């Protein structure tokens, strides 16, 4: 605690995300300092007067009920993504280079559930107060930014894979394990430079030091991730807008190539194809790649819809002096978190191989032994 007279029940915390909440209550502030930045009470009143107010203070039954509902999200996320990983391990048809990205994405989604969501639930249960220390606060914020970026980088790599499979099939055949490993390292290493590096060095506070000093005095029991305009714009571009635009372009090219190839196949069928085996093999491969591309397009669309409210709010809020209220922030944030829970459901409903693998796992047929299970799966696929 500091000597600054701030009403701590009015304090807000920004659950580890890229948002800002003012903690200043406007009562009795005489002096505050952060990183040698000093401001008077009059300056604080001027800077914080038009900002959004504190979050609602829930009663004990209300916050327990909300927390109990929210805790279902990480539990279902871990279970669903663990089933995805087991499906790829135990299902021969799913053990492909492409699904290496799917497994890594499932690990990222599980990390969100295990290392990010619990801190947000903790703050909700504790009425936004934080008693875990400044270091853990920064780490949780860094993990939040990192895991979101890791997820979208994986989706971008999957978009590249589907683009090569349909538009550049000969080049796709050269996609070796080595290249996939390099892409996976890129997906996990690059986000560190827009999460841990700037956050731990306080680059997100540059230019708003006085505002931080007023809103979140040192020692206050609050975990707030405050970002300046430059940080919000740059990180949002790298972590969301540019990858989404890239994936959109890839999907358009995939769709155009799929239409063209479908037309070529119909033309060959009408003209009569003397090499029946080659034609059937090409048609089967085209259908398989097209279905995989369709599933990926649905997953990308779901990701974009879930995270768009957060990232549009993240950019707008610093531009309008942090006036967006607390509840819209939390709704946008948890909508993004829920996306990590949805991917296994999308695999189940839109990918036949995952559908069969999930059913066998949930019915415990795999308990008979991986070898027997694989043979059963292979026979099922051949009979379809």
TrEMBL record:
<feature type="transmembrane region" description="Helical">
    <location>
        <begin position="101"/>
        <end position="122"/>
    </location>
</feature>
<keyword id="KW-0967">Endosome</keyword>
<dbReference type="Pfam" id="PF00001">
    <property type="entry name" value="7tm_1"/>
</dbReference>
<dbReference type="GO" id="GO:0043410">
    <property type="term" value="P:positive regulation of MAPK cascade"/>
</dbReference>
<keyword id="KW-0472">Membrane</keyword>
<protein>
    <recommendedName>
        <fullName>5-hydroxytryptamine receptor 4</fullName>
    </recommendedName>
</protein>
<dbReference type="InterPro" id="IPR017452">
    <property type="entry name" value="GPCR_Rhodpsn_7TM"/>
</dbReference>
<dbReference type="GO" id="GO:0005886">
    <property type="term" value="C:plasma membrane"/>
</dbReference>
<keyword id="KW-0807">Transducer</keyword>
<keyword id="KW-0812">Transmembrane</keyword>
<comment type="subunit">
    <text>Interacts (via C-terminus 330-346 AA) with GRK5; this interaction is promoted by 5-HT (serotonin).</text>
</comment>
<feature type="transmembrane region" description="Helical">
    <location>
        <begin position="64"/>
        <end position="89"/>
    </location>
</feature>
<dbReference type="GO" id="GO:0007268">
    <property type="term" value="P:chemical synaptic transmission"/>
</dbReference>
<dbReference type="GO" id="GO:0071880">
    <property type="term" value="P:adenylate cyclase-activating adrenergic receptor signaling pathway"/>
</dbReference>
<keyword id="KW-1015">Disulfide bond</keyword>
<keyword id="KW-1133">Transmembrane helix</keyword>
<dbReference type="GO" id="GO:0010008">
    <property type="term" value="C:endosome membrane"/>
</dbReference>
<feature type="transmembrane region" description="Helical">
    <location>
        <begin position="177"/>
        <end position="199"/>
    </location>
</feature>
<dbReference type="GO" id="GO:0032098">
    <property type="term" value="P:regulation of appetite"/>
</dbReference>
<feature type="domain" description="G-protein coupled receptors family 1 profile">
    <location>
        <begin position="80"/>
        <end position="347"/>
    </location>
</feature>
<comment type="function">
    <text>G-protein coupled receptor for 5-hydroxytryptamine (serotonin), a biogenic hormone that functions as a neurotransmitter, a hormone and a mitogen. Ligand binding causes a conformation change that triggers signaling via guanine nucleotide-binding proteins (G proteins) and modulates the activity of downstream effectors. HTR4 is coupled to G(s) G alpha proteins and mediates activation of adenylate cyclase activity.</text>
</comment>
<feature type="transmembrane region" description="Helical">
    <location>
        <begin position="331"/>
        <end position="350"/>
    </location>
</feature>
<dbReference type="InterPro" id="IPR000276">
    <property type="entry name" value="GPCR_Rhodpsn"/>
</dbReference>
<dbReference type="GO" id="GO:0004993">
    <property type="term" value="F:G protein-coupled serotonin receptor activity"/>
</dbReference>
<feature type="transmembrane region" description="Helical">
    <location>
        <begin position="142"/>
        <end position="165"/>
    </location>
</feature>
<comment type="similarity">
    <text>Belongs to the G-protein coupled receptor 1 family.</text>
</comment>
<keyword id="KW-0297">G-protein coupled receptor</keyword>
<feature type="transmembrane region" description="Helical">
    <location>
        <begin position="219"/>
        <end position="246"/>
    </location>
</feature>
<dbReference type="GO" id="GO:0045202">
    <property type="term" value="C:synapse"/>
</dbReference>
<keyword id="KW-1003">Cell membrane</keyword>
<keyword id="KW-0325">Glycoprotein</keyword>
<keyword id="KW-0675">Receptor</keyword>
<dbReference type="InterPro" id="IPR001520">
    <property type="entry name" value="5HT4_rcpt"/>
</dbReference>
<feature type="transmembrane region" description="Helical">
    <location>
        <begin position="292"/>
        <end position="311"/>
    </location>
</feature>
């Amino acid at each position: 605690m500091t000597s600054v007279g701030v009403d701590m029940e009015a304090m807000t915390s920004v659950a580890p995300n890229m948002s800002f909440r003012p903690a200043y209550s406007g009562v009795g502030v005489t002096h505050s300092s952060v990183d040698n930045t000093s401001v008077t009470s009059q300056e604080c009143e001027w800077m914080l007067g038009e900002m959004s107010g504190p979050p609602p203070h829930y009663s004990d039954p209300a916050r327990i009920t909300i927390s109990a509902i929210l805790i279902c999200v990480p539990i279902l996320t871990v279970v669903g993504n663990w089933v995805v990983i087991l499906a790829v391990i135990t299902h021969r048809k799913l053990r492909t280079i492409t699904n290496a990205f799917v497994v890594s994405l499932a690990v990222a989604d599980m990390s969100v559930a295990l290392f990010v969501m619990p801190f947000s639930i903790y703050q909700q249960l504790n009425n936004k107060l934080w008693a875990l220390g400044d270091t853990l606060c920064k780490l949780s914020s860094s993990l939040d930014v990192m895991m979101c970026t890791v997820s979208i980088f994986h989706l971008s790599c999957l978009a590249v894979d589907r683009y090569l499979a349909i538009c550049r099939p000969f080049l796709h055949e050269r996609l070796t394990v080595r290249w996939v490993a390099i892409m996976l390292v890129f997906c996990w290493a690059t986000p560190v430079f827009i999460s841990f590096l700037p956050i731990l060095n306080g680059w997100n506070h540059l230019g708003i030091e006085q505002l931080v000093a007023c809103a979140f005095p040192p020692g206050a029991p609050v975990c707030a991730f405050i970002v300046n305009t430059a940080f919000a714009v740059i990180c949002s571009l790298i972590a969301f807008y540019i990858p989404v635009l890239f994936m959109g372009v890839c999907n358009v090219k995939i769709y155009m190539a799929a239409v063209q190839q479908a037309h070529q196949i119909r033309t060959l069928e009408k003209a009569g194809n003397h090499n029946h085996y080659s034609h059937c093999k090409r048609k089967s491969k085209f259908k398989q790649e097209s279905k995989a591309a369709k599933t990926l397009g649905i997953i990308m669309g779901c990701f974009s819809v879930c995270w768009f409210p957060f990232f549009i709010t993240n950019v707008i809020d610093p531009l309008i002096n942090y006036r967006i209220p607390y509840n819209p922030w939390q709704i946008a944030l948890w909508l993004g978190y829920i996306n990590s829970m949805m991917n296994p459901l999308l695999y189940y409903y839109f990918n036949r191989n995952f559908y069969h693998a999930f059913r066998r796992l949930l019915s415990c047929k795999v308990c008979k032994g991986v070898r027997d299970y694989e043979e059963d799966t292979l026979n099922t696929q051949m009979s379809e």
